[in-house]
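Predict the assembly for these two chains.
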Amino acid sequence: MNVLETFRTGLEAVVSHRLRSALTVLGIMIGITAVILTVGLGEGAQQQVSSQISALGSNLLTVTPGSTTSSAGIRGGFGSASTLTVGDAAALSSNVVAPDINAVAPASTVSESLAAGTTNWTTTVVGTDPSWLTVRGRSMTEGRFIAAHDLATRADVAVLGATTAQELFGFRDPVGQTVNIAGQPMSVIGVLNTVGSSSTSSTASNPDDQAIVPLTTASALLFGGSSRNSVSQILIQSTSAGTLSAAYQEADAELLSLHGVTTAASADFTITSEQQVLSTATSVDKTLTVLLGGVAGISLLVGGIGVMNIMLVSVTERIREIGLRKALGATPRVIRRQFLVEASVLGSVGGVLGAGLGLLGAAILPHFISDKITISPVATVGAIVIAIGIGIAFGVYPASRAARLAPIDALRSE
Amino acid sequence: MTPSEHPGSGSPGSPGDTAEVWVESTGTYPLVQPPVIEAHDVWKTYRNGSLEVDALRGVSVEIRSGEYVAITGPSGSGKSTLMHILGCLDVPTSGSFLLAGEDVSTMSEEELAHVRNRRIGFVFQQFNLLASMSAWRNVELPLLYAGVERSERKRRALGALERVGLDTRVDHRPGELSGGQQQRVAMARALVTDPDLILADEPTGNLDSVSAADVLGLLDELHRSGRTIVLITHEADVAEAADRTVRIRDGQILDPEPATSVAVGR
């Protein structure tokens, strides 16, 4: 009996027990749908996180004053001590001291009220130098960024984030306009590109809503005299993602020696990486995906056991049929194949329908939940293959039971 | 009817083909043909836990080509066990059993399946038709397992159904046929492979007397056209239809009658 005939016979058996076959298929279908949707959700979340990483500026280290590792109990808390200076930033930008550091930007931030005409807007004002643009991985949509001569001359110029510009000037062109920052008129020289809000960023609540001024201008006009040389953070960009930890080591060693600190435990600064935050977020997403995928996998397993259950019932119910087929010349191998075909038909129909339902769900669900669902063709085809595999794997035992039945026992049973 | 009119007898020359065995037109009977059934001192022991039951205790029987033999005995006599062994559905515990000259007592399950497919046509008391399939699909089943091509299967199945007078019911399912008609479908299925032996196990047991007479008439007709038929029954009047009766009781054959002393082929 050739493959086609075996397939036809198996298919006929599936079709002749419509309701039972449909319910079995349903079990597999739900399992495959669950797997496709959870994997899609996980992949969607990871894609979101990685797009946030690139939005934040890559290979970024942030040095903040103070230390989180307070063991002595006498040092100030995180961010409270003004131990970082412009000098520290200048030292770190040396290629000799720190060859793996590409760019360094000292920055001080303060929340200030901005006014343009009658419009007021409170936002974060960042005092920094020209390398901030590189370190942050930003670009200009309009005008220019602050330049070295702006710092040297303490120029009263400001660069606005897209949201800030929109809030202050509406649809007017902000470049060339004047904005009052803490009562000080400054001319707008440029607008930053839009990167979209990222809730996981630890440095700015919204990278599109801020105003950038020269650090010298900010020190003189915004922060007062006592902290003229101190900065609230130093942003460091390594030469590549691979040299991030080397850059970390270099910055750490240089700052320790500059500050005259002998042991790393008593350091008066903290270096953090944006990617640390994001990798935590990513790993949480991965854990969730594994967890949900596991639950989906279990439902698929239950579906597989359903196939086995139905196939065993089918073997018992058709014991006379099997006996008759054997009496008429069906070999054990032919009987086994027939039942394997039945099981794999159940599995593959469930797999295809489940994949279809999963794709439908991926198209509809994002309208109701905020999460993105990314379906890859590989995962979909893989899910169908797994469904067929489950059908066959759970069909092996019932099929071999059918094949082993002695024809006389099978014929005798009523 | 001459043998050449048999449905599916388009394979002359194959050993044990009934077409070669009895040729009515010439009245000759080639004696070189080996007996269809040659069982010698067959024992069959069933183990039920620690209990051993001897269902057959040294049965020897010989059935020639073209014979019509009834095997009778009360229930529990071992006739069903003998039928299973003659039908290659089971193998003897000891003793030898040759089917058309071929020793089947040591065959594997796979080989037995092929022997059943090629050499034996079964007719059961319960008809054993597959309810989900039409009459002709039921009849073609043995050909399916013999690896016959689909159009040829249909042609031969329709031929066999015509032979049993059911050519107007080929597309009916068993549920749409009377008991007598169902048994005719089963007989067509037994005929379709053109077997050496037709083994009928209580074929009239589930039928009313009219249908039973009908089925026996058909068996008689098949016998007259040269087929070897073994009929298993516990009814004496049914056994009368056969040329020779082998009576079995307690796993042994009563008053064994040598096959050679019987006028074979009528």
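The two ends of chain B are 16 Å apart (CA to CA). The helical segments of chain B are 18-21, 79-86, 109-119, 135-146, 150-163, 179-191, 209-224, 236-239.
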